[in-house]
Amino acid sequence: MTQAPILEIHGLSKAFGPVKALSDVQFELKRGEIHALCGENGAGKSTLMNMIAGVLQPDQGDILIDGTRVSIPSPAAAQRLGIALVHQEIALCQDATVAENIYMAAINARRMPLMNFQKLYADAQKVMDLLAPIPVRTKVADLSISNQQLVEIAKALTLDCKVLMLDEPTAALTESEAQRLFSIVRGLQERGISVIYISHRMAEIFSLCDRVTVFRDGHYVATDPIKAVSPDDVVRKMVGREITQLYPDKLAPKEPGRLLLSVNGLSDGSRFTDVNLQLRAGEILGIGGLIGAGRSEIAQTICGLRPATAGTVALDGQGLRIRNYSDAVKAGLVYLSEDRKGSGVFLDMPIAANISALDLSKLTGTLGLLDRKAEDRQAAEMTKRLGVRMAGIGAAVSTLSGGNQQKVAIAKQLSVEPRVIIMDEPTRGIDVGAKVEIHQLLRQLAGKGVGIVVISSELPELIGLCDRVMVVREGRIAGELAADELGEEAIIMLASGVQNSSNQQKQAQNVA
Amino acid sequence: MHADIKAPSEARRINFARLASMREAGLIVIILALCIAMSFASPHFLTWGNFRAMLMSFSIEGIVVVGMTILLIVGGIDLSVGSVVCFSMVVSGALFLAGLDPWTASLIGIGVSALIGAAMGFFVTVVGLNHFITSLAAMVIVRGMCLVITKGTPLSLFTLPPAFKAIGQGSFNNIPYVIMIFVVVVAIFDFLLRRATAFRKVFYTGSNEKAAQFSGIKTRQVKFWVTVLCSTLAGLAGVIYMARFGAATPTFGAGMELNIIAAAVIGGASLNGGSGTIFGAILGMALLSVVTSSLILLDVSVYWQDMIKGCILLAAVSIDHFLHRKKS
Ligand SMILES: Nc1ncnc2c1ncn2[C@@H]1O[C@H](COP(=O)(O)OP(=O)(O)OP(=O)(O)O)[C@@H](O)[C@H]1O
Ligand SMILES: [Mg+2]
C-alpha cells in the first residue's frame, strides 16, 4: 500500500443556500481498505458521497483518483471512473422488475441495442442470490423495504468498480442479511476494491472496517485505524460529548399496568395467522423477527391500515371497530411506518406541516381554520426535543438528511399524545446520540402510561430498550421473552426456528 | 452547518412565501412589462374599456380556474370543465324555457354539474380509474348530452328577466357584477386553501397519497369532494355565461379546459400534485388574457395566437420541470 491512495479529498466545501453542509473537509481512501465514515445526522456524509458519485458538484476543493485531480460532472462520469454508490434512500424504478433494476446501470454502460431477457434474468438471479433469494422477475413495488434495500446493493455489485460507497446499507436489514453483506464486502476487499462504509451501528463498523473517519457539523474531525480507537472514542468525536447511558432504565419488574391493548386471534388470510398480543400501560413491548416474517403487516392490520380476516382488537377493554386508520388515530392508536420516503413523510412539504399531519383537529379552531401559530409552536418544540438539524421549520423535508427526516416522522407520531404507539423501525438511520434521546422520550411516554410497541431489526435495541420481546416467525408468534431472558442468541433462535446450537452453526456457515 | 432553531415566523417566511411568491412576483413583472410595451404599441390598450373587457373575459373562466387549481393540487385533472360549463348553461336554459324561474333553473344547473363531478369522483375513488381518463370520457359524454338536450341548435334566452341578465351584464358603480363574483370566489378559496384544515388535507393527499393515508387522512374522500367542487364551480360559471350571453349554445366551452389547465400550470400548480396557489393561477390566467388581448390589438391572426399561447405554456412547464428536477 505504498502507492497513492485510490481516492483523496482535499479542502472540499459544499453549501445549500445558507446551510453549510461541508466546510473544508478532507478524506483519504487507501487501496483495498474498508473505511468507515461516521458522524451525526446531518454531518454531511451523504453529501460527500453524492459529490464523489457525481450527483452533486462541490463548491470548492479537489477530488483525486489515483493521485490525479478529476472532475466528476455526472453519475455516468463517476461510473466510468469506477465509482459506485449505494444511496441511502432507495432509488429504484418501482414498476420495473428486480432484474431490470439490477442491470439498469450496467446496461446503460454497455450500450447494447437489444436486450437478451433470458440472460438478463439468469445473471441478475446469480447476483441477487449472493444476498438473498429474491425472485428477480418480481416487480420492485411488490417488495418490502428491506428487500428493496438488498436490490439496491445488488445493483452496485454488478458494476465493475474500484471504489464502492455504501451509505447506510444495513439500516433496513436484519442481522443475517447484514452478515451476508459483510462477507460480500470482505470478498470485494480481497479483490482489491476499496470501500467507504457509512453506518450508525458501531458494532458493524468495528467488526468490518480498517479505518474510521469522523465528521462533525460538516467539518473533518479525525481519521484513525480502527484498532487504535474504541467505540466510545468514535462516539465522543462524533457528538463532541460523552454518552454515558446508552439505554434508559427499564420498567421495574412486578409493576404491571392495566391491560391497554389486547389483540386476539388476528389473521389477514395471507401473511400471518392467529396473532395474540397483550400490551400493558407503561410497557415497551419489542417485536423481533426476520425480514418478511410479517411484523409490519401485523402492526398495520392492528391499526386498520390493512384489512383483517379474523380476530379482534380491544383498547382499554373496549372492543374497537377499526375500519380505517383514522378510526385508529381517533381511538389513540398510532403507527410509524418503516417506509420513511414512501409513507412516512411529505417530502416537498414544510417540516411544520409534516409534524401536524397526523392530528389536525388539535390545531383547528371552531371555524375549521388551522392555527398556524400553534402549528409552528408545536413544530419548534418537537424539532428541538429531537434535535432536528434544519434551516427552519418552514424548510421542505426533502432538504433534510436521512436521519433528520426520520426524526420528523417520529415527531409526527409523538405530537398526537397517543395511548398506544406502534413504531416500525423507529431509529432507522438515526445517530447514536439522537437514538438515546428518542429512547428516553419513549421511556418517558411509557412512564406516563402510554403503551409502546417497537418493531426493530436491531437486536441491541430490542434488548436494551424493551421490557418484553415477542418474536414473529413466518406469520406466527414464535415465542416471547421476558426482560431477564433477553439476549441476542435467544431472539435469533426464536426468529429462525433453529433449536440446537449445532444447527445454528450450520446456518451461520450457510450465511457466511 | 448550524442547527439553531429559528423563530417560527421567520422560518415560515422561507418556505411558502419564498418559492411561491418568487413565481408570482415573476408573473406580475412579466404581465406589467407586457402592459407597458403594449401601451406604446397600441393606444387602445391602456384604456378602461380594454381593461374591463379583459377582466370580463377572464373573470368567468377564472372561477373555473379556482376549481381546477385545487384539483391539480390533489393530484387530479379535469378535462370535462368546458363541457360541464356548457351543460350547466344548457340545462338551466332549457328549464327556463320550460317555464321554471331562472334562479331555480340555475340552481338546478349547478346541482347537475355537481352530480357530474360526483359521478367522476365515484369512478376515480371507488372504481379506481385515473382523473385523466375519467374526465376525458366525461368531456365527450357531457358534450353529447348538451347536443341531445338542445337538439344541436342554440337556445335563445332573450326572454330572461333583466334582474337575472344583470348578473352577467350589469354593473355597480361601473364595476361589473361578474368581476365582483369572481373576486369573491377567488378571495374565499384563496383564504380557505391557505388556512382551512380541510384544504390542508388536499395538499397532503397531493404531495404523497400513501403518507396521507398513513396519517389518518381519508384520501379517497378528499379526492372525491375536490372533484365535485371543480365541477360545481364550472356549473356556476355556466349560469353566469348564460346570464351574460342571453343564450345557451351547445358547442360553447369546447377547448376551454386547455386554457384553464394552462393558466393553473403557468401559475405554479404542478401536474404531479402537492403544489399550487389560487393567486398564482389567476395571474396565469391574467397573463394569457393580456397576451390574447395584445395579439388581437396587434392584428395577429387567430392561428398565430394559439401557437403563441402554446409556446408560453411550454415555457412555463419547462421552467417548472427544471425547478422540480433540481430539487430532487
Ligand atoms: N438539497 C438540500 N438542500 C438543503 N440542504 C441540504 C440538502 N441536502 C442536504 N442538506 C443539508 O446538508 C446537511 C448534510 O446532510 P447529509 O445528508 O450529508 O447528512 P448525513 O451526514 O448523510 O446525515 P444522516 O446520517 O442523517 O444521513 C444537512 O444539514 C442537510 O440538511
Ligand atoms: Mg446520510
TrEMBL record, chain A:
Listed SMART domains: AAA
Family per record: Belongs to the ABC transporter superfamily.
Domain of life: Bacteria
Membrane-topology descriptor: Peripheral membrane protein
A single GO molecular function term of this UniProt record: ATP hydrolysis activity
Domain ABC transporter: 7-242, 246-499
Predominant cellular place of this UniProt entry's protein: membrane
Localization in the cell: Cell membrane
Transport recorded as keyword: yes
Key words of the record: ATP-binding, Cell membrane, Membrane, Nucleotide-binding, Repeat, Sugar transport, Translocase, Transport
Name this protein carries in UniProt: Sugar ABC transporter ATP-binding protein
InterPro entries: AAA+_ATPase, ABC_carbohydrate_import_ATPase, ABC_transporter-like_ATP-bd, ABC_transporter-like_CS, P-loop_NTPase
From TrEMBL, chain B:
Record keywords: Cell membrane, Membrane, Transmembrane, Transmembrane helix
GO-annotated cellular components: plasma membrane
Record membrane topology: Multi-pass membrane protein
Subcellular location: Cell membrane
GO molecular function annotation: transmembrane transporter activity
Keyword Transmembrane part of the UniProt annotation: yes
Residues that span the membrane, as ranges: 21-41, 53-74, 81-100, 106-129, 136-155, 175-193, 224-245, 278-297
UniProt KW Transmembrane keyword: yes
InterPro entries (UniProt xref): ABC_transp_permease (IPR001851)
Name recorded for this polypeptide: ABC transporter permease
Organism from which the protein derives: Mesorhizobium zhangyense
